[in-house]
Amino acid sequence: MASALPEPTREEREQAQLAREGAGKKSAIALLFYKVMAYVTGFWLLLLVVEMVLKYLVDVNGNHEPVIGTWVAIVHGMIYVVYVLAVFNLWSVMRWSFSRMIYLIIAGVVPVLSFVLERKAASWYREDLPGALDAVEGRALRRAQISRLKSERER
How many Cα atoms occupy the beta-carbon half-sphere of 73 within 13 Å? Predict the structure, then answer.
């Protein structure tokens, strides 16, 4: 049978509050990184779409030769990898559902969708942040209480 945790001490509450503040800063940085990458990825994807339209539909240079350059696809691919890392970072910090991560990842390959979902992700962030910070603070408080219990039992 599990025993109840003792009342938290002032120091334990302070540690938990520091954990909450740290998580708040970490989540704000994750959101900013995601937002920047959403816009950068969206821009490069639109440039890639322009390249593909000019190359294959309009056939500007004839024989489907690159118009802007083959480097556009390469740069978009590299930026997309960083975008996926930004999505994963935000997703893991906020502890969102797996489906939200998939939506955000797909947004990097559908033209204009990264701009739309960037705003949606910011909305999700604002809605979910208080609960996420409460959870971080609660976990930190329980860890501190359990640590105190263990050290008291060892004496």
Answer: 8
Query: What is the full per-residue pLDDT of the chain (155 aa) written as tens digits?
Result: 355 777 888 888 999 999 999 999 999 999 999 999 999 999 999 999 988 888 888 776 777 676 777 888 899 999 999 999 999 999 999 999 999 999 999 999 999 999 999 999 999 999 999 999 999 999 999 988 888 888 888 87
Cα 8 to Cα 119: distance, rounded to the nearest angstrom: 39
In angstroms, the CA 55 to CA 69 distance is 10
Task: Output the pTM of the full model.
Answer: 0.85
